[in-house]
């Protein structure tokens, strides 16, 4: 799994590619936590390149969301694949996260 | 086709992907479609990760997980066996998907997905080992 981070206006866009599973999820969590610790609290996670996400990945997302909300920020999601959206819906996370069709729209929403 | 197979992996998170890839190969060979293969893979990952993290408590000393895959009539049977302390994960309460963010529980989601993705899930322990059988119709 690869992670790339860029600043976009006032937001920080983290793009993940590959599988987010029990082996790789902690790296995503570390990337998110690193941005929050650096004071970047307007986050967008671009999931366009993620073809698989298990509960380990969802757990990292929820934990990061709690952390960033305590810092008065947010973590918004962009372009989840059909399969990723499905597991999010099964876990009720489609009502917890703001989800956008594109990364640009997610950035624009801040 | 009556192809079956089995694999034994060390009970470590970095080995779970081997189990997933094995199940994906067997499922595909039995004619499971791509979506079914994906659902079997994810289910096996969830179960095996739970065994590593909760069953064996991330103790890497010699714990193993056996996975058997075979077809029975029109269903693929995936049986996951371990020697961690006996525990039936199916008795755990289902987490609430409608819980608001600050009331969400961390655990239980893996089994929740397995129940949704598989046609049937059974636990049994005839030999003082944990057996979890996942059953999915071959589409």
Describe this structure in words.
- By secondary structure, chain A is an alpha/beta fold.
- Chain A has a single domain, classed as 2-Layer Sandwich (Transcription Regulator spoIIAA).
- In chain A, 40% of the residues lie in helices and 33% in strands.
- A five-stranded mixed sheet of chain A has the order 1-2-3-4-5.
- The longest helix of chain A has 16 residues, at 55-70.
- Chain A is globular, with a radius of gyration of 12 Å.
- Chain A starts with a strand and ends with a helix.
- The mean pLDDT of chain A is 96.
- In chain B, helix 1 (13-29) runs antiparallel to helix 2 and helix 2 (34-55) runs antiparallel to helix 3.
- Chain B has one domain (5-137): Heat Shock Protein 90 (2-Layer Sandwich).
- Chain B contains three helices and five strands.
- Chain B is α+β, with helices and mostly antiparallel strands and 139 residues long.
- At the A-B interface, helix 2 and helix 3 of A face helix 1, helix 2 and helix 3 of B.
What percent of residues of chain A adopt helix (DSSP H or I)? 40-55%
The quaternary structure here is heterodimer
Helical percentage of chain B: 25-40%
Strand content of chain A: 25-35%
**Number of domain modules of chain A:** 1
Write out the strand line-up for the largest beta sheet of chain B, numbering strands in chain order. 1-2-3-5-4
Distance between the termini of chain A: 27 Å
Overall CATH architecture of chain B: 2-Layer Sandwich
Count of DSSP strands of chain A: 5
Structural class of chain B: alpha+beta
CATH topology name of chain A: Transcription Regulator spoIIAA
| Distance linking N and C termini of chain B | 15 Å
User: What's the helix count of chain B?
Assistant: 3
The biggest beta sheet of chain A reads: 5 strands, mixed
Indicate the radius of gyration of chain A in whole angstroms.
12 Å
Q: What is the CATH architecture annotation of chain A? A: 2-Layer Sandwich
List unreliable stretches of 5+ residues of chain A.
none
Mean pLDDT of chain A equals: 96
Rounded average pLDDT of chain B? 93
